[in-house]
Write a structure and sequence with these properties.
Chains A, B, C, D: Keywords: Hydrolase. 4 copies of one chain form a homotetramer. The first copy, chain A, has 3 helices and 7 strands. By secondary structure, chain A is α+β, with helices and mostly antiparallel strands. The first copy, chain A, has one domain: Hotdog Thioesterase (Thiol Ester Dehydrase, Chain A, Roll). Chain A is globular, with a radius of gyration of 16 Å. The mean pLDDT of chain A is 93. Chains in contact: A-B, A-C, A-D, B-C, B-D, C-D. β3 of chain A pairs antiparallel with β3 of chain B.
């Protein structure tokens, strides 16, 4: 099973007055992580996509379960698999752990559209093929 | 049906290179909004809760549907109802509209715990009673 | 002396693990405040400027003195005066207080340029005239 | 001359509707960078300092010159030197470049205090000695 992963350290800047990582900042981290997956995992650079090709990949649905508190300087490991590739959307499952313990699990549905018209665009064949490499095996698509 | 609502303007600081509101910043807005609901809607101030009483109200589950793009200087209206009050958790449904059009819908499950032990705490009776005022009517709790 | 002012509450989302407002978030607040000054104080809306006219007003210089810690739910009052109007730049002095006590003082130098070329643009006469209304009196321009 | 440096990529999450890095986010990056300097450059971990020893290192003064716009996926190199070590403060000079071109220059004055009393604390000898390794040579302290 192909899993795209990255690690990231929880910083002072991510914390709040409760002394733990403030959850809205996890979504900023997730955007960076998905940006890395597009660039390094798929070979389709976010900058090229947005600036040169005027295509956007907006997040249309998120589910998130926050399991354990993130503490300053915890090393988080993010692991991503694809659970479904639609005509112009893709479903991702992301797990964040630290030292083997769960921190959060999220699912993202990301759409593909033309930036100027806001109309959905089918994935080009090469992008679809690149995504298939990260598909979770059958039976794990929930 | 009691709905707690607030309006907020999308700022330059909320936008990204795609020219629209960057969704991770919506979660920061939601935290401010829920903070207002605790203080103004329930009469239990976030500061008092966190600093004086060392109680935390962490978000444990989120579902979000992003329906329409937010543009700079759109006025967003957020409307909150309670869909379930558990022993030490509360379920919220939030709708964001602008000029009558949907922008996003979210559900939040918020827990109640002692900050130092991380153990869940049942809601005190006065807090539970305050929450009941914002309950959605039967049949709309989904 | 004409002073443009606004108030803003320090939120949970502005705090860090030291329990006080995290200073990088003050710069986000300052951007919102300067955005309000352009729109409400000068009558030149940030959205119109950026989106329709493709003009940008980048910050080119900042000096900041952080005097007192900001605590959750402090009401901050921001007061702005203009200290210098250049050909294609403007110098602003901002003071933030809470309950009459200083929190921070900042000076900003903001430039005026064409978004596409990055070349500086002289202020149009109407914008310059609007800025003059907020000029600090002689002898206070330091 | 000892210079502490790190690189960091400008992300989609750092951009604004003008398509360039939004300057308030540079201050968040600078906080991470100074956190790295404390931990990796000085050997005094931010977490240990804040959580275990209840000491804070608040920023009391900043000067910033923004020289060139930051674009998505630019690699920024940050270089830090110490220009002055006071009894309970330290002055830092930071230069950010990308591909050899200047992006911004900042100076920071950072204080050292007890978190609970807010009173300034002299640097311990070992911290002072660690800081001296990063001092800029004479004649460059401006």
């Amino acid at each position: 099973m192909a899993t795209f992963s990255r690690t990231r350290k929880i910083r002072f800047a991510h914390t709040d007055a409760a002394g733990i990582a403030f959850y809205p900042r996890y979504f900023g981290m997730m955007n960076d992580f998905i940006e890395d997956w597009f660039g390094d995992g798929l070979g389709f650079d976010f900058k090229h996509l947005h600036i040169d090709e005027k295509r956007a990949v907006p997040t249309v649905h998120i589910e998130a379960d926050f399991i354990g508190a993130g503490r300053m300087h915890d090393e988080l490991t993010f692991a991503l698999t694809v659970t479904k590739i639609g005509r112009s959307s893709v479903h991702l499952r992301i797990r964040a752990t630290s030292g083997g313990e769960d921190r959060f699990r999220m699912t993202f549905v990301i759409a593909h559209m033309a930036m100027e018209t806001g109309k959905s665009l089918p994935w080009p064949d090469d992008m679809r093929a690149a995504m298939e490499k990260w598909l979770a095996p059958e039976g794990e698509n929930s």
